[in-house]
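Here is one chain, start to finish.
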Amino acid sequence: MKAHNQASSFFARWLRPWLIGTAVGTIGCTVLLMLMALLVRSVDVPRSAVLPLAIAAAACGAFLAGLVAAAVAGQKGLLLGVACGFTLFLLILLAGFVRYAGVDGGNAVIKLAALVLCGGIGGVLGVNMRKH
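Its structure:
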């Protein structure tokens, strides 16, 4: 019986918040990317601004993921936020490999840093929001 309780506890404390946060962050990132695509399509945005806009949308998604995951868990917000940000980075990296058959290393490092940092900040704020 103890093994079942430990597995259930692991799911409730870590896996469930991580999955919920990552799902919400992915949806949020997708919606923001669609809005950015509309903006780029309707307004004359320089081509050099497209990548920073995409990174900003992904960072907002990671922030949202960390915020939601930490609010669901109620603890360990920094760790959950970083995990959600890293997971979103891996999903974006995978999409880049599937779509473009390669990813620029410099941009990947910038995306990794932005997503992990924003996910961590969202996680810390999510835990602190829950206490009030």
